[in-house]
Amino acid sequence: MIRFIFVRLITGLLVVFLVSVATFLMFFAAPNDVARTMAGKAATPETIALINHRLGLDQPLWHQYGHFIWRALHGDLGYDYYHQRSVVSIIKGAAPVSLSIAFGAAILWMILGVGSGIISAVRPRSFMDRALNVLALIFYSMPTFVLGSMLLFFLYFKLTSAGHAWFPAAGYVPWFGKPDPSNPQHGFWPWMHHLILPWVTLALVTAAAYTRFTRGSMLEVLSEDYIRTARAKGISERRVVFRHALRSALTPVVTQFGIDLAILAGGTVVTEQLFGMHGLGWNSLTAITNQDLPVIVGILLVVSVFVVVANFLVDLIYAVLDPRVRLY
Amino acid sequence: MSATPATAPPTAPKTTIVARGPWALAWRRFRKDKVALIAAAVMAVIILVAIFAPLINSALGQDPNYQDQVNGLDVNGLPLGPSGAHWLGTDALGRDVFARLVYGARISIGIGILSTGIAVAVGVVLGLLAGYFRGIVDVIIARLLDVVLALPVVLAAVALVAVFGQSPLVTVLVLAFFSWATMARIVRGQVISLREREFIEAARSLGASSTRIMFVELLPNLVMPIIIYFSLLVPVNIVTNAVLAFLGLGIPVPTADWGGMISDAEAGGLYQQAWWLVFFPGGVLVLTTLAFNLLGDGIRDALDPRIERLLRK
Amino acid sequence: MSSDEVLLSASGVSKRFNVGSRGLLGGRLQLSAVDNVSLEIKKGETLGLVGESGCGKSSLARCLTRLYDVDEGTITFDGRDITNLGRRQMQPLRSEMQMIFQDPYGSLNPRRRVGSIIGDALAIHGNRGKGTRRQQVQELMEIVGLNPEHYNRYPADFSGGQRQRIGIARALALKPKLIVCDEPVSALDVSIQAQVINLLQDLQREFDLTYLFISHDLSVVQHISDRIAVMYLGRIVESGPVEEVFTASSHPYTRALLSAKPIADPRAAEQRDRIVLAGDLPSPISPPSGCRFHPRCPKAEQDCVTVVPTLEILRGAGPDAQRVECLHPLEADQDLSSFTPSIADTIIGADAAATGSREVAS
Amino acid sequence: MVLLHVTDLNVSFDTDDGVVKAVRGISFDVDRGKTLGIVGESGSGKSVSTQTLAGLTRGARVSGSAQFDGLDLIKASPSQRRSVLGRKIGMIFQDPLTSLHPAYRVGAQIVETIRAHDRSISKRAARLRAIELLGMVGIPFPSERVDEFPHQFSGGMRQRVMIAMAMALDPTLLIADEPTTALDVTVQAQVLELMRKVQAEFGTAIILITHDLGVIADVADDVAVMYAGTIVERAPRDEIFYQPHHPYTEGLLDSMPGRVERGQPLRPVKGSPPSLIDLPPGCPFAPRCPYRFDRCDQEVPVLQTVFGDEQHQSACFLPTEIEERKALREQLVEKGGIR
After folding, report:
1. ipTM of this model?
2. Is residue D175 part of a domain?
3. D234 alpha carbon, distance to own chain's centre
């Protein structure tokens, strides 16, 4: 077990390193005209060179990277080009928003997806199974922004204009901490109230994939020899399904969840954009429009590290679920 | 006897099926799958529309990029709803929504298929190499995979498009970059289990070379997972492309693109006045991905009837 | 029948596999699959190689045909040292030694047509044109009892027995001198198994083939072999002409194996003295010291724990000699079940007293 | 004394290619404390029939009856059947690795069986019982190994665990479905020995399903030979081995290596078993039968008493007099019809 954790940890660190190289190269090696954008149209070549020098963009690439990674290791991801805010502080401000969206949605989709997948698999070809399958397929085929637009249109716009303002429009309300001066609301209920639509949007789209996935996994496990043994022992069908089948069926689902974390991180971008929430996605989109490289690279790096760390945790859960993997 | 038919009979009864190759069998199963056949028909229509977009629009006398400020907008300068002149209404610039949808099919489907094709080709080659040679080749490719899979897809894709500039080619390459990894993973896994099979050893004992084993023995066994993954990946890439467009980093204007059309409509909440601007492109997008997914499911069930075998209806 | 000319000989062959490492930074774990094995196969004979799963018989076969590189020892085929030949140098020899595999499902590529599977050898080795290749393949199909019209079918269209015939036709295509049959009938039903065994014997007569016949089924080996070699944990513990080994086995393991053999004859089954060996095969990663069989041997003595026995001639001479690798071989009239181990750390002792050394789960 | 009385059991499955008639009207009895061996090749329906009794063939169409301990297993409700399974009927299967849950400790799996049928037994008591059972089936250090996972056991040890689990509640019937097929001969001998020991100690009746006549010869009291979903012959063990009536039984025995002199060719049954989807109209064995005559192609033979022995029944049109039957065999051997 220790060996297993150790090996995973080393691999994880290696991946983080490679990701940092990849993201850094992607942006700093590619031709860019940040200086020109910043200097404005009438800038002279000298001004541009000066700006490039000030941003360190005239140094050799490896030097830039070394500098970047050294500071990153000390918890400093640099400053944005325009307002000289530290990237770390931007991320600190934005991360709670994205995490709120991501965690809530993930919990919701796991419950919906795994639950409906089990219902489907236990009674295959029943009406319930078919209905869930059709629903899952429709949501699975639905891009996040289409579903989000529809929810906004019907549940917010139509309802509100009909006099039922059940759902708030847009914007994020913090659960803890100082209330934003421009937005005095905060606390658990307002937080949740504002997040319901984003959660539902993101969760439905992803849950559909999990319904299909869990169903397939359950069906496969239910045909295993040890399920036959369990039935031959005379234990209740409920116990066969929940104790024997689910335990094994969840292992591939957990693995898939690990893979989907990266997609989840991307999924919040669209959701943030739709529901006007200023999380990591929104910030990086703004940075992208402005070619604000330190912010883009910083956010990408932090999100990737989050994915790698979460994947490590997923691996540990996996090892708990299946004692055989502890051998490695 | 049992109220809940669930699993296969413990010993699959032996049946002798005479003279039918794997493809013939798959086709036979596919032909019975009505849903998949309908999906295939819908797909065919959409693809035909994409191919013959110019013909269709000239026959209807519509230009997707013509901004009819006079007749295409109402007195307040707002877009027109669906009518006889404009079947699906007009957009904020007075352009015909139907004509743009027809052209958008070209972009959406073209990019979806092309990017998937590149991703699958790269994934198959790398997966094959990693799985067959193992060792250092495998380690390098595996770490490469980890890196790609650790990047947040949409975020990184958007950033890449921003860096390299908006163009159809960049979009295709970016989409391919983020989707080869899963294919490589699947192929690698398949190859690792296949190479333990005795027929590979048989080939080796006949003196077959590595190239021959990879392409003559292994590749034919990978065709089914490749087709299955291809059919499931195309809709994913169509959607991701639409997402890029929605985030303002799709194909440059004024080219029609389904995601871009929705994005335009979202801007300033325009769609709250003109529902058709979101409803039709969104609907077509959902219909296309749905058809692709249904078709993909059908192909998967026909080629790899494992789940169906488990059920044994 | 067999002459005295040796077709293939191995001397001191060992093969180890790396199977990961122990602990965090511990050393490599090695599995000793084949350990210091010497044997000879004479032209035209059938050498039966018997042993339980995991005893290394398949690994040995793959060393002999050089599908695996050997770690130690030499292999001579048809008078030529092939121990260190590279893949390219082996290429021409591949046509002279062929294999038939166990699994009629796994050994045929499910995505290729039968004709091209059988014709593979011709495609790889020959420069014959396609027309004649088809003709040759169809002749082969006829020889092994397949309908040549089924040339374009896929393996899935055939039953287990027929598939095994396809595998045989493939091995036969280049008219090899040696065919290694790796459990060729183990996966087949009894009634089909007999058909395939008869076919193999007919082909041997017709084409002057030499067989290395690997099986865990003693009845089959007894029927088909001229000489047999018994393997236990990577080593050959006894070898010799089949009658002698079956009637006068000297190694306690051979004796136990023979007594455990199921006999489809209730009266004979009741009459024989059954020796039920205790325990399982120990792990080849950390094989027991001394004689590898000692922890399960009812006749083990103190020196068996420390002294590694070698394969010694018991009676006869040359390839036809009966050899045994045991410090205290059984006499023909001795009964193994009358022995109780004189040392403490055998599993049998453990079973009786429910104490003692703990066996390694494989 | 009859423990299990099966009459006219039919099992079929719907598949894409048609209806697979896996078991077609078989009847048999199992006596208390005795071993019934069911022998047959793959696809003969031997496993399907017993698994149907335990309600394990889901999605199958089943008819017939199976009286066990005052309950008809076929018509019983799932909960009635569950109350019998594991308590009065224990089952072990071919592959002990896949038959044990990989994620639970073996002790927990045995405890579960015990507590599923008697909640009043405390977890602690059930665990002690599990250790006792593991010791009984010959697992060394049972109090330690009770907390290990199945993958930490060897093949033979796993099958012992399966037996311990099946015997946990001292069932009256043990169904062993190819229990030794996946094991090596020396381990197979251990497991058969153990089953004999268990039977002697607890008086358990055993249904032993196997394709291996050697195993049958070793442990069965009575034998049923199955072919293409039907029982073609049924008799006490020695009758089957020394006076087979049905040509298929004869063919099976003849196919065994060791039945001929070394150097002589074996005598296989020609051809291969029929498809269970479109069976021949007459006797299912007719196409492979060396004795076949016209009637065999038109009429399906049913089990009838042969050789004047009530216990010996065969589904074949050949003469039921022992001398006539033997003469026919000799004629055939002379003509070289049996090669």
Report:
1. 0.83
2. yes
3. 13
